[in-house]
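Take a minute with the sequence and C-alpha cells given here and flag any C-alpha cell that looks odd. Thanks in advance.
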Amino acid sequence: MGFKCGIVGLPNVGKSTLFNALTETQAAQAANYPFCTIEPNVGKVAVPDPRIREIAKIAESAQTIETQLEFVDIAGLVRGASKGEGLGNQFLANIREVDAVVHVVRCFEDDDIQHVDQRIDPIADAETVETELLLADMESLERRVENAKRRATSGDKEAKAAASVLGQALELLKDGKPARLTQPNDEEEARLFREAQLLTAKPVLYVCNVDEGSAATGNEFSVKVFEKAAAENAVAVVISAAIEAEIATMAPEDRTEFLADLGLEETGLARIIRAGYELLDLITFFTAGPKESRAWTVSRDAHAPQAAGVIHSDFERGFIRAETIAYDDYIALGGESAARDAGKLRQEGKDYVVQDGDVMLFKFNV
C-alpha cells in the first residue's frame, strides 16, 4: 500500500510540470493555458528508501521492490467550481478519491506564463481553491445535517452521532475553517465523519513552486505560505518544478552533483514524500528473502495482522504471528539467522503495533 495524493491548484501554477517530473513521464500535457489537464493523470513512483538496499544486500535478494506513491494530476480549479464553473464538478469528484491534497501554489514571477488573475499572490491563490472546497462541503452537509437532526429526535442513535459530528463540521465551514479541524467524540462519530468524504477534511501539503534560484532557500512568496501552513497545523515544502523536470531527464549518477551545485541535498520528490508520510502518519516495514526484499507502507498505528493484510488478505485472515526484527538489529547483526541467535528476533502477536523499519515474516494458516 502506498497513498494517493491529488495535485491541485489554480491553472498555470506548475501542477502538470511537477507531475511530469515526479513520475518521470510526460503523461500530463504541461502547456501554458488553463485546463490543459482534462482527465486526471495518474502516475506511480517508487518511494526512495536506502534501507531497502541494505536489507537486500544482507538477504542476498534477487531484486528489491520499493513501496509506491501515487500522484493524481487534477484539472485546474477556478472561482465558481463549487457551482460547476470551469471544470468544477469534475475537479470536486476527482479530489474526493485521494488520501491527501498536494496544493501547488505559484511562488515565482514569469511574464511568459500567464496567471488567471494577472498577479502573483500564493495566499490568495490558496484561498480561492479552499473557498470552493468549503462551499462544496457546506452544500453537501446542510441537507445531511438537517436530515440527521430530524431522525435523531426519533431515537436513532446513529443519526444522533451524525448530527453531532457533521453539525460540528458544518459550523466550522460556516466560520471559514476546514472540516479537518472537527473533533469527533468517539469512534462512531469518527467513522461517520470519515464516511462523509468531505473535501476539506483531507490533509493538505502546500508545495511552493519557486524559481530555480530560490529552490534551496525559498523566497518572500514561500515564506507567506509557510506561515499559513503553520497557522493551520499543515505542512509546506519548497520545490522548483523546473529543476525537478530537468532532474527527471538525467542519469541517476549525474543527479547528486547537479543538486549539490544548486545547494540542494535531495530532490523535491524526496521532500514531498517525507512531508506526505508525516502528514498521513505513515511508516514503512520490510520483508526480505532470497527472491526479493520489499518495502510496504502502513499507518503508524497499524497492528501486525493489518500489516500482513497489506501483502495479502489471506495473511491477515489467517494470521498466527509475525517474526520481527528491528531494522538496526537486522543490519548490525547481519540478517535473520544472526538476529535469531542473538535473541533479537521477536515473536509478535495480533496486538503488536508495527514500528517503522521492522523486518517481518508473517506466519499464517488459512
